[in-house]
Amino acid sequence: MTPSQLYDFFRSDIVDSVLPYLWTDDEVWEYMDDAYSMFVRLTGGIPDATSDVTKVAVTAGAAFSPVSELILKIRRATLASTGLPLAIKNVEDTPLGSTGDYGAQPQVAADSQPGIIRTMVIGEQDGLCRWIQLPATDDVVNLVVYRLPLNIISEASGDNDLNEVHYRHHRNFLLWMKHRAYGKQDAETFNKAKSEEFKDSFESYCVLAKAEKDRQKSKVRIVRYGGL
Predict the structure, then answer these.
(1) Which residues pair with 139 in a beta bridge?
(2) Residue 85, preceding peptide bond in cis (omega within 30° of 0)
């Protein structure tokens, strides 16, 4: 389904296809973009190992590197120059230094001297990761991630801008769009009961979609039964 088709479905479903609209075009496109992102977030993210989001530039002497805030989870990290995997640690899993006015502060490891990096620490600062050891040379780290959509859905969106999510889910984005629509603070549009009903329906659908996705990711195991 294209964004334009989803827009038309929304106008038809909510019976708002005659000017002047109760919900402006800008509002409808914003609801659609929000529904797309919310579906991806609630179902665990889009798997990616090839887009620009998965390439992290390493600069010699720099302890930190920018990491895309579209990333929900880093599954694997590999140093391009060596092909070796990096350990991925959350800041809570690293040693803590002294406790000050702002709580326990992350301790920079004693072995963070210039060399080949071996560990990627995430969660210290939004949009940044820290390296252990300190990079001695420029490099690139290749990631395998789950992430949010790359594209923002708008009136200018192309026909393929929803295609990071399988088309069978697209019609259900209308549930979240109608949740947002009936939550609009306006005497002619606000309906709390309808808004909550569509929100619950959307979230329930996402639970089923995520369960289906998780089953597809699960490794097939062969069970052998012994004889009597």
Answers:
(1) 58
(2) no
Q: Which residues does 64 contact at the CB level (< 8 Å), separation at least 6?
A: 125, 128, 129, 130, 131
Instruction: Indicate if the alpha-carbon torsion angle 19, 22, 23, 24 is positive or negative.
Output: positive
Q: What share of the chain is helix, strand, coil (3-state, %, to 5)?
A: 35, 25, 40
Give 157's contacts (C-beta < 8 A, 6+ positions apart).
2, 3, 4, 151
Pairing verdict, β 134-135 and 114-115: parallel
Question: What's this model's pTM, rounded to 2 decimal places?
Answer: 0.85
pLDDT, tens only, 51-91: 999 999 999 999 999 999 999 999 999 999 999 999 999 98
User: What is the token pair recorded at 100?
Assistant: 């000050």
Burial of 194 (0-12, 13-18, 19+ CB in 10 A): middle
Burial class (CB in 10 A: 0-12, 13-18, 19+), 176: buried
Q: How many CB atoms lie within 10 A of CB 184?
A: 16
